[in-house]
Specification:
mainly alpha; 82% helix
Length: 452
């Protein structure tokens, strides 16, 4: 029978077959759920340290707040930059020989990123007075910045390994590491900061020592998990000398991702300042909205990171159909959870919000803005997935461009919007920003996919 020239030929036996959407969604969901739990565990550990230090001297608490204000964005950039290793890991997940050099070079990337962060933290006692920080807070720092400098260097290596585990789909191992981190923090932080029995109260020094010890122990655990729970089991993976071209390739993919986190962090800081200019009630309500939005948005973050390896493998095979199917499956998993959480917050806000604050004025503001909060988190979930898809395609630069423009405009307009319309107008502007990010990143994803 002659071949119809107007009809595509049937795919050959070696043509890639796209798994059904339901199968992809189940695979992504199984990887995302342990990662979501690990994120919740990490947040609990951070809250414990902050709560314990609330019982120390005021100067030490101020010094801790100063150091953490520097530490958090540094860790954010390091973690975002290390995401650049995920597509390289995902496309080699079944080949230990090819994976070994990726592991080695990702560790070198983490050391370079961590070294930069360590220098910034170690110089804090010198830079803080120049920024006008209260001398009492600077004096209270003591050796805490130096402990944090070592902590962030070791933490960078640990983050490189957990990122590798995510890229290999071993998110249960990530959960084990996170639970161990939280459990150790629950024991060591109160013990070393407040003291107990023969252990003296060490205050801020104790907090730094606890963070460093926990990081050292869990970094060793992460190495054990990597070498026993993945395809690298039984294969020797030494540090060795890096292949700088490979390190740079990963950094070139990861740095824009880290940049997006930093841009968003900076813009949200500007919004906080804008609301503080309006009044304490508005500032408090804004902070509660940010906390709730962060919790509701976590499932989208977990799903986005979990499906990067799926995108990378399909892209390596040149299978555009499967890449698109992975994105749709990600939406199938993440969006119902985020929408359901937002709807629950909307329906039960009258019960949940009083658990967060007993100020009736703050409660009223937050409850009035639950609808716009829902709009923000749903739009944020929608934009996050194509953004992570671009990372899986090793082309995250459009994401950084989108964040710089959209969040830059939001930050520039924050103060006038707050003065004119208060908290409501600022959060509606936030919703418009996330919607614009969704349109921008979806378009960039489609254009990038078309060139695959």
């Amino acid at each position: 029978m002659p071949l119809d020239e107007n009809r595509s030929p049937s795919p050959g036996p070696d043509a890639p077959v796209t798994p059904p959407a339901r199968v992809l969604a189940l695979r992504i969901g199984r990887k995302a759920f342990p990662l979501y739990l690990s994120m919740l565990s990490n947040m609990v550990g951070a809250l414990v340290t902050a709560a314990v230090l609330g019982h120390t001297a005021t100067a030490e608490l101020a010094a801790y707040a100063l150091a953490v204000a520097v530490l958090n964005p540094l860790v954010m950039v390091v973690q975002g930059s290390l995401r650049g290793t995920m597509p390289f890991v995902g496309e080699n997940e079944d080949d230990p020989a090819a994976l070994g050099p990726v592991v080695r070079d990702s560790i070198w990337l983490s050391v370079c990123a961590g070294a930069v962060g360590a220098v910034v933290l170690a110089s804090l006692p010198l830079s803080a007075p120049a920024l006008g920080v209260d001398p009492a807070a600077v004096a209270a720092l003591g050796v805490f910045p130096f402990l944090l400098a070592v902590h962030v260097l070791v933490l960078s290596v640990k983050l490189s390994v957990t990122t590798l585990l995510i890229g290999l789909g071993e998110t249960t191992g990530v959960l084990v590491i996170s639970l161990a981190t939280t459990a150790l923090s629950l024991v060591l932080t109160p013990l070393l900061v407040l003291g107990a029995g023969p252990v003296p109260a060490l205050g801020l020094f104790g907090a730094g020592a606890a963070m460093l010890v926990v990081t050292l122990l869990t970094t060793a655990l992460s190495q054990y998990v990597l070498r026993t729970r993945t395809v690298l089991r039984g294969h020797r993976v030494g540090v060795g000398l890096p292949q700088w071209t490979s390190v740079w390739s990963m950094a070139r993919v990861g740095l824009p991702s880290g940049g997006t986190l930093l841009v968003k962090f900076a813009a949200m800081g500007v919004l906080t300042v804008a609301m503080a200019r309006v009044g304490v009630t508005e500032a408090a309500a804004h902070q509660l909205l940010v906390v709730v939005a962060t919790f509701v948005f976590l499932p989208a973050t977990a799903v986005g990171q979990s499906f990067v390896p799926f995108v990378a493998r399909a892209a390596k095979d040149g299978d555009r159909a499967e890449v698109g199917a992975v994105l749709r499956a990600g939406y199938t998993v993440a969006v119902p959870v985020v929408v359901g959480s937002a709807a629950l917050m909307w329906a039960a806000g009258g019960v949940l919000v009083p658990l967060l604050t007993d100020d009736p004025h703050v409660q009223g503001l937050v409850l009035a803005l639950v609808p716009v909060l829902a709009a923000v988190v749903v739009a944020d979930a929608l934009q996050a997935l194509p953004g992570m898809g671009l990372l899986g395609l090793k082309h995250p630069r459009p994401s950084l461009q989108a964040f710089v423009v959209c969040y830059g405009l939001l930050a520039a307009a924050a103060v006038p919007l707050a003065e004119q319309g208060g908290l409501a107008l600022v959060w509606w502007a936030h919703a418009v920003t996330t919607a614009a990010l969704f349109l921008w990143q979806t378009t960039a994803f489609r254009l990038t996919l078309a060139r695959l």
